[in-house]
From TrEMBL:
Keywords: Copper, Disulfide bond, Glycoprotein, Metal-binding, Monooxygenase, Oxidoreductase, Signal. Residues 1-18 form the signal peptide. Residues 168-277 form the Copper type II ascorbate-dependent monooxygenase N-terminal domain. It comes from the Eukaryota. Residues 300-442 form the Copper type II ascorbate-dependent monooxygenase C-terminal domain. SUPFAM superfamilies: PHM/PNGase F. Pfam families: Cu2_monoox_C, Cu2_monooxygen, Temptin_C. This is Temptin. The keyword Oxidoreductase applies.
Amino acid sequence: MTPVRVICILLCVTVAQGYRMFADRIPNGQQVPHPCKPNVLWHGVGHFNVDGGGFRNPFGMDFDRAGRQWTEALCRNDSDGDGRTNGQELGDPDCVWKVGQIPHSTHSLSHPGICDPMDSPRCQDKKYDWGLFHNQREWMEDACKSSEFNCSAIHDQDVRTMTARLDLTAVPPQETTYICQIFEVDDVLNDYHMIAATPVINNSYILHHMVIFGCEDSVSTRSAFQCDMLPDPKCKMILTVWTLGLNGDCFHPNAGVRIGKNGIKKLAVQLHWNNPGLIDHYQDSSGLVLHYTPHLRHYDSSMFLLGNEHFIIPPRTPSTVVTSRCAPSCTRHKMNDTIYVTSAFNHMHYLGHKMRLEQFRNGALVRTITNDLIYDYDSPKMYFFNDPIPVEPGDELKTTCDYSSTYKATTTFYGESTAEEMCYAFMSFYPFQSMQQSPFCTTWGSISGCDPETYHGCLGQEEAKYYQDVGTLDIFHNVTSNCRPFGPCTTECMDTILTARASDPCLTSGDPWDRLVTWGLSRNENGRNFLASLESCEIELYKLANDKDIIH
Ligand SMILES: *[C@@H]1O[C@H](CO)[C@@H](O)[C@H](O)[C@H]1NC(C)=O
Ligand SMILES: *[C@@H]1O[C@H](CO)[C@@H](O)[C@H](O)[C@H]1NC(C)=O
Ligand SMILES: *[C@@H]1O[C@H](CO)[C@@H](O)[C@H](O)[C@H]1NC(C)=O
Ligand SMILES: *[C@@H]1O[C@H](CO)[C@@H](O)[C@H](O)[C@H]1NC(C)=O
Ligand SMILES: *[C@@H]1O[C@H](CO)[C@@H](O)[C@H](O)[C@H]1NC(C)=O
């Protein structure tokens, strides 16, 4: 598998669909003030998170119960229990407002989900038996804490900034767009360390996440263009990530990303736009400000990605656990010395409800690196390690993702779209030089690219031949000339398949075979013919393997 797939994580973040649209369904929905930050609006009125998404607050619960419409009952209700009705708080005291109209009042608004006065014990003790906060005090402590970027190093003398910002570009009226732009760093004649990155958010209505990738020198600079998972095959190194809920990335004081003469000379910014309302008049020119210094720090840093890229979550299931091992053989193969982890965070989509990353040595747990007991996609929890965590070659890193699909009626697969799921852990580490191979250690189901034991005998060459044109293979000729597509199962077909399976471990069911079908055989005509021919004896082979009759 290519690292290209792996990088998907960032590009694949999904979104609270349409919370901005809901704002238009309540009076003054785009104008609700933040209770403790002047000039800040609470965009996600029905959510605990100011930007929307994640768990609903008391008003959001009632809005949902009302069918996500502004009904008279919802208007007359007092969701936060502070004595003012939702209608009074939102400027529709008589409950007469209809979508598209100008509300009775457009000022003196207050938040319909937050009990006022906030500092009264009655309001502070308001309990929630769902979500991340136990009561309003905890919620408000979180919401009102200073969101100023706490990174004193960026004020040091000689620290410069470079802006990697998208040219002003029209946002297409489609739900998901990835847009990229490739830059040269400001000074390629001297050495610098990038030590922090802060977001410039130009259109908060659609901006969902941003990633800065390091590129090879030979890539050409390019103005804004729609891109895929990777900005370019030559831009594969993840340098920094911004998502909803973060206000910047401040690197560990011992380390920085090397840019300039002996470091990265070209970089790409990638934005994920989420436009579920399919609005056709938005523009955006968001990006990141990179803070860099000529005073080189002790170590060069980079990011390491772990996780699983092939799993299935059944519908209506309270808990589905997906694990992934970066095996001892993998860390030994990738690293020639200890690396030090300075920060880490987990990433799943909306079904994700718990996740952890653990480190093992000689089979024994050394420590739990990340541990989200309640995972909330919209409020990523960053783990910082002032004393960086040493990870040695030969250590095992295990990610465990736990999903809840109780409210979903269909099966969920790994994937990049909104409806799909992910299971990734990111770690920032130094020194970059100890990582000899690509800093990705993800698995495909149970298969790990760097652990031959997980290949079940279907190793490199064995597998590789199926990714070329199978039409040229002996085995293709044998199977397609003795079997008819989809049957019936003839004696000679059965014999051919048994011979083929006995000689080629890749053809036995299991993750290696599934991967071959998904990425190789199902993608071309000859591959599909081959599969259809193998298919013809499926039932008979099952009977043979299980030595019993199938009940029809
Ligand atoms: C009114 O609010 C209460 C408390 O939040 C809630 O239990 C009830 O379901 C709400 N009714 C309506 C119609 O929203
Ligand atoms: C800012 O970061 C420093 C160092 O990590 C920490 O000691 C301090 O408490 C932080 N201040 C705030 C306001 O978060
Ligand atoms: C977005 O960027 C454009 C172009 O730089 C600018 O004219 C506009 O005022 C910006 N909007 C916001 C909300 O920052
Ligand atoms: C690991 O590799 C890097 C870069 O190739 C080299 O500088 C370093 O000395 C190596 N470390 C060890 C312990 O061999
Ligand atoms: C294909 O069939 C021929 C003739 O029966 C046999 O010698 C050969 O081993 C078969 N090849 C494979 C890959 O099964």
